[in-house]
Amino acid sequence: MSSYTCQNNVPSNIPLAEYLFHRLKQLGVTTVFGLPSDYNMFLLDGLENVTDMHLCCNTNELNASYAADGYARLQRLSCLVSTFGVGELSVVNGIAGSFAEHVAVLLIVGMPPSSAQRKKLLLHHTLGNGDYDVFRRLASDICTYSTVIRSTDTAAEVLDHCIARCYRDQKPVYCGVPVNLAGLMLPSAPLDAPLPLLDEPRGSLLDELVELVLDKIYAAKHPVLVVDACVARHGCTQLLQQLAEATDFPVCCTPMGKGIVDEQGARFAGVYVGSLSAPQVREVVDFSDFVLVVGALTAEFSTSSFHFAYKPKNIALLFARHARVASRVFPDAPLRVLLALLLQRLDPARVRHAREPVPEPSALRVAPDPATPLRHEWLWARLSRWFAPGDILVSETGTSAFGVLQTRLPPGVCVVSQPLWGSVGYSVGACLGVLVATRASAPPRRVVLFVGDGALQLTVQELSTMVRLGLAPVIFVLNNRGYSADRLLNRARHRANARYYDVQPWHNLALAPAFGAVDYDPRSVTTVGELDTLLSDPAFARPSVLKMVDVALPSMDGPPALMDTLMPEHPESADHKRPKLV
Question: Do 17 and 42 touch, CB atoms closer than 8 A?
Answer without folding.
Answer: yes
